[in-house]
Amino acid sequence: MLKIYNSLSKQKEIFKPIVPGKVGIYVCGITVYDYCHIGHARTSLSFDVMIRYLRYRGYEVKSVRNITDIDDKIIFRALENKEPFEAVTERFIQAMEEDERALNILPYDVVPRATQYIDQMIRMIQQLLDKGYAYLAANGDVYYDVQKFESYGCLSHRVLEDLQAGSRVDINEAKQSPLDFVLWKAAKPGEPEWPSPWGLGRPGWHTECSAMSLDELGETFDIHGGGADLKFPHHENERAQSEAITGKRFVNMWIHTGFLQINKEKMSKSLGNFLRIRDFLKNYDGEILRYFTIASHYRSPVDYSEDSLDAAKSPLERLYTALRGLPIEDLLPPSNTEFEQRFQEAMDDDFNTPVALSVLFDIAREINRIKNSEPEEAQTLGALLKKLGGVLGLLHQDPVAFLHHIGKAKVDAAMIETLIQQRDEARMAKNWAESDKIRDKLTSLGVILEDTASGTLWRLG
Ligand SMILES: [Zn+2]
């Protein structure tokens, strides 16, 4: 039985899909005005693992993640660069897809964009006006009247009065109350605009997720996810809009991923501790970031540093070393092993990846123990290790290739292999001085040599 921590009830609940055997999941995507950073990667990798696990458990999953391709930040960036806003969004959508491929993140089934949903959003805003949940302000904006939605604050577990007391004094006099949020923004000169019953303008951010999830997954769906920072106000607002319109429960399970800090501080450009995924990938393999991410539970805060990242290298190296040399291509893994049961128990407990990883290490240890004495048994265990690693999005690379570049994105493998060949030749000719010299050179490059019966193997240490 899969149990998931639901942010709404603040409890682990048994997961019961609305339609048996099927899961609809919606994850809030990014606003495409800049490159994705490793905080985004943490959220994306966490949900990728959950979706992979749901599929492994036999569910037919429909995954949806939006792209916010119209927003103040995008408009600002386009003005700054003197280019159309579409050029900005196209560029960063492509960059995001590239980054996610490098992190082995599976594409979502549906990737709706806000600008494709303007009509649906206008209809939704009209419904909210008709039902008395929204009002047209004097400046031409349309706002949601938070006071009208009784359970506002339930998801973030805050009381409306506290939220109001805590909210900053709002300079926007068009709003009736500081917590009211914008559904439709009247156009300002030079900004992208669409026609609506309230004049030219564009929809507010929160509305797009309500419109897209309703369209793709229906009035009530199974799982809605996002980073913890989206719980309030974004998800609270989505809930207020959707439930006001349908009169039904919007989402059964709300999943929120924890924060990522860098060197114990909040990631920020001004502090200089801001790291883009593509800058990370210049120095490291994407799988290292995935391992680092899932070595912690998805709800725990994680602290990123060079040291913690280095600590993620050697466990991955151990797993790949166990797989190295095992011909497991066409092998079926054994089913119902104790290993797999333990793996499932861990993942069924609110996707407990750190415990699931410990099972992978137990398999690797067993492979190493029997590799020489029981090679066939070691091979089928290798197939199991690869299969369960795959559920976490790990171990998809060729073990030898991975061990040749571990931790680093680019290594001159050809040069290293030439040196190894020269060393082998020197040894054949019993030229020990030369072979030692080459070995020292390889050591200085961080290459670790293993002389085996079938030749010299190498990896980076
Ligand atoms: Zn959203």
Structural features:
3 domains, Rossmann fold, four-stranded antiparallel β-sheet, 15 strands, alpha/beta, 461 residues, binds zinc ion, single chain, four-stranded parallel β-sheet
Question: What does the model show?
Answer:
The protein has 461 residues and is an alpha/beta fold. It has 3 domains: 3-261, HUPs (Rossmann fold, 3-Layer(aba) Sandwich), CATH 3.40.50.620; 284-405, Anticodon-binding domain of a subclass of class I aminoacyl-tRNA synthetases (Four Helix Bundle (Hemerythrin (Met), subunit A), Up-down Bundle); 413-460, no CATH class. It is 46% helix and 15% strand. It is built from 16 helices and 15 strands. The protein has helices at 38-56, 72-81, 85-102, 118-130, 160-166, 205-217, 231-246, 277-283, 286-294, 306-323, 338-348, 353-370, 375-391, 399-405, 413-428, 432-444, and strands spanning 3-6, 11-14, 22-27, 60-65, 134-136, 142-144, 181-186, 201-203, 221-227, 251-257, 260-262, 265-266, 302-304, 447-452, 455-460. Strands 4-3-9-10 form a 4-stranded parallel beta sheet, with helices on both faces. The longest helix is centred in the first third of the chain and has 19 residues, at 38-56.
